[in-house]
Hints:
The chain is of the alpha/beta class. The protein is built from eight helices and five strands. It is 53% helix and 12% strand.
Amino acid sequence: xxxxVVLIGLPGAGKTTIGRLLAExxxxxxxxxxxxIVRKAQKPVTRIFAEDxxxxxRALELETxxxxxxxxxxxxxxxxxxxxxxxxxxxxxxxxxxxxxRTMALTAAKRAxxxxxRPLLVGEDPVEKMRIxxxxxxxxxxxADAEVKADVKSAALLADEIAVLARAHAGWA
Length: 173
């Protein structure tokens, strides 16, 4: 039985784009926990942060991820902050193969800036904020089972690379 494949990394690393392509390659469901949270809360993540605070969002995120991880094996692309919460990756490892989508702060900031829906990047120098997030979160991200470097490779190439890893280490056919 395959394990979930959970993609972690900075906002803008490409988790969702790569995740959708990876799910196609593995013939697996793709799950975007932020989309589930937005549907349940009936407001975008930026409004949840603004109106309810980051603590409330993180609680919703943990609850959503617990539910998703209890479901059928999937490719999951949680928000960049999920994997940087103490104990989360250790608790997830039993049911999931964790892949760190590694990018430089500059690359992630450029990609994240295109969408403009990243609550932790609003109103600040995005590159500097991304450097701070990387510094705060990278020790957690490095706990992943595998790492792929995503600065120069296309999302399709990265999905191919992760599919090989998922077949070798997470029971996918």
